[in-house]
Amino acid sequence: MFWQTTRYRVDLTRPLVMGIVNVTPDSFSDGGRHVGLGRALLHCERLLKDGAHILDIGGESTRPGSPPVPLDEELARVVPLVREAVQLGVPVSVDTCKPEVMQTVLDLGADIINDIWALRQPGAQEVVVRHPSCGVCLMHMHRDPQTMQTAPMDGDVVPQVRVFLAQATVRLQTRGVARERIVLDPGIGFGKTVAQNFSLLARQAELLADGLPLLAGWSRKSSLGAVTAVDGKPPEPAARVAASVAAALLAVERGASIVRVHDVLETVQALQVWHAVSQQAASKNHEFIAKKDQGTLG
Q: Is 49 a catalytic residue?
């Protein structure tokens, strides 16, 4: 399976790690740490050294309750870094819902548009449709960042998310966007309860039934804090590394092609262990089949 993007045909045979680069003062986990071109670029280089396969740059916080960022401010945060990041030799994704930002970063050579609104904002879909090859990640979000956690979804979340993502995919395909340009994201934490988020992970196979690759974004999310709380007190986001790695590994085991993470090195190492075990299991299975075919079992 491949993900077609602006400059790269991304091989999804093995799970990939997307490193988060927040150039915002108020993101829930690392807000303010990478503001300024110099610090942001150093962070990109560190993530690549740690093993990131894709960089995801965001200039607007989407944490619950976060206020919208004016267009000119988001452009000022994102554009200088994208201009430099496209020279680093890996696909560059930009996390934005504004069509003006999408068009600007694509003109700079960005490879992927990662949109929490699944291109539902006016003009956003047109930007992707006009582009000949950019990749796009369509995410499910209930309501909006300001209200999504004040009134989360009701009922069985899995079929609702699946239908939403299928409809978003059809809308794009109907307008001529090839399936191989599209990746889906169930939107962990975006208008769901803790139980609903874990239901999406436990039943992730249902979201893969339509044949498109899945991106899982569990990194440092509040649901992980909820289940690892001590005496009712969740650990701070930066202290959720082990839980984040565990969730990423479980998502990959259940078929996710890409995991979007803050803690790249730890996630890459965990996936290397998982891959080594998977290779050994596959080797033993092939050996068993060969012996069976030769009639030498026993």
A: no
Q: Bridge partners of 112?
A: 93, 135
Active-site choice (14, 221, 291, 292): 221
**What domains does the chain contain, in order, with CATH numbers?**
2-267 (3.20.20.20)
Q: What is the torsional sign of CA 90, 94, 99, 104? A: negative
pTM: 0.91
Mean pLDDT of the chain: 92
The terminus-to-terminus CA distance of the chain in angstroms comes to 38
Burial of 181 (0-12, 13-18, 19+ CB in 10 A): buried
- How far apart CA 145 and CA 122 sit, in angstroms, is 17
Cα torsion angle, 37, 38, 40, 41, sign: positive
Query: Mean of the pLDDT values across residues 202-220?
Result: 97
User: Quick check: 128 and 177 in contact, CB under 8 A?
Assistant: yes
Of the residues 171, 260, 284, 291, only one is catalytic, namely: 260
Residue 225 CA, chain-centre distance (Å), reads 19
Tell which phi-psi region holds residue 32, choosing left (phi > 0), alpha (psi between -120 and 50) or beta: left
Is 192 tagged catalytic?
Answer: no
Angle between helical axes of 37-50 and 264-294 (0-180°, round to 10): 20
Beta strand 9-11 pairing with 2-4: antiparallel
Which helix (H) or strand (E) covers residue 17, if one does? Answer: strand 16-22
Does residue 133 register a pLDDT over 70?
A: yes
Mean pLDDT score, 291-297: 58
